[in-house]
Design goal:
mainly alpha; Rna Polymerase Sigma Factor, Chain: A; Arc Repressor Mutant, subunit A; 2 domains; 9 helices; about 70% helix
């Protein structure tokens, strides 16, 4: 096992460097990647699946698989896209295997807001419940594309690679998802 050493102590290493070191067996480098990307992958999975337990399982499987398959990754800089693609595909497999249930931890979402006053918190909770329900009404593919774009800020091209379709198809899915969500969320405008 190699240890991670920075040229400048305290300077975070970029993803490609961490991936390269992890591929060479540096467990600490991989731990840094997990710490860096575990929360975004969990947010994606929990919103796609609407089930905290399933999302935790998916993210754990994704990072275990990524560690095992790291030598197969051709480009170190492609790691993040690879994580998003793997997480999205695992979520789509779970969705196809069962009808998702709405079970998102809305209290955690609301409690993260520093300005959450009781009335505001109740309204935000209602909005989150409506959004979660509306997301479950989208097709799994629309949901994945919308979440990757609107929540995770991925480009249309990146999303196309992640869900293995063209950027034109991604744009169409997102447009349909936005229209459907806008209609459902109309009362909160």
């Amino acid at each position: 096992m190699t240890t991670t050493t920075d040229a400048e102590p305290g300077t975070p290493l970029d993803d490609a460097t961490l991936v390269s070191r992890a591929r060479d067996g540096d467990v600490r480098a991989y731990e840094q990647l997990v710490l860096r990307y575990q929360a975004p992958m969990f947010r994606l999975a929990s919103r796609m699946l609407a089930n905290r337990g399933d999302a935790e399982d998916v993210v754990q499987e994704v990072f275990l698989t990524a560690w095992r398959r790291l030598p197969q990754l051709i480009e170190d800089a492609a790691f993040v896209g690879w994580l998003y693609r793997t997480t999205t595909n695992r979520c789509l497999n779970v969705i196809r295997a069962r009808r998702p249930q709405v079970d998102v931890d809305l209290e955690a979402e609301v409690s993260q807001r520093a300005d959450a006053q009781p009335e505001h918190a109740a309204q935000v909770s209602e909005q989150m419940a409506a959004l979660t329900k509306a997301l479950q009404e989208l097709t799994p593919e629309q949901r994945a594309c919308w979440l990757l774009r609107e929540v995770h800020g991925r480009s249309y091209e990146e999303i196309g690679e992640i869900v293995e379709t063209s950027s034109t198809a991604v744009r169409g899915r997102i447009a349909r998802a936005r229209a459907q969500l806008a209609e459902v969320m109309q009362p909160w405008r």
